[in-house]
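Q: What structure does this chain adopt?
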Amino acid sequence: MSKNDFFEEKKYLQETLQLAKKAISWTNPNPMVGCVIVKNGKVIEQYLDDKPFPSYLISGFISEKPMHVVAAIDNKTKKAIIITVYEPDPKLWQKGFEKRK
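A:
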């Protein structure tokens, strides 16, 4: 990891912690979570008929690890709701983790 990558990662980690702090009163009794999707995040699937809001599968990388995020978008408030975050299984996804096998 280069020095620039380290400082870039540190910046995103700090942003994530700030997001988690905002959730203190909303998440009890669950843990606080902050998430920032970076490094070429790309919408790879759309679920426009999902209710109450359309949702999207986003593929990206965090510290060189592939991550998938399912997020719903409330178009009225312009807020994103994170539904789940997971590391995709290489047995189920093609190289690059953007297409299913």
